[in-house]
Amino acid sequence: MIQLYHGSTVYIERIDLQKSRPNKDFGRGFYLSADRQQAWRMGEFKALTEGGAPVMNTYLFDETVLISGELRVLTFEGYTREWAEFIFLNRNNRSTKPAHDYDIVYGFPTPTQASSSSRPAMSSRI
User: Fold this and answer.
1) Burial of 14 (0-12, 13-18, 19+ CB in 10 A)
2) Which pTM does this prediction carry?
């Protein structure tokens, strides 16, 4: 089990994907980070842009699910052409349907989203 973080302005007990925004790097989903500071900076950014105070949501995740075959998982090991094309696809998706059918996308966010962190992030649609 690993601990993952989600910075926000509200405590999230139950994840509601209907509240997630479209056209994010890895598509509509719930974004988590193993980097507590990165998640906290995202909470601070949300507080600055949307009002409120930053809060840290913490979740335990069984990382064996990434290789178990139970879920459709896409992993990016770094900044590759395929990674850039995937982000472009998601950011430019004008359909109400997702641009991909993965349950979990694991990889590096764009440098502007990462806020100078080089730790991977995860988006989940499960």
Assistant:
1) exposed
2) 0.79
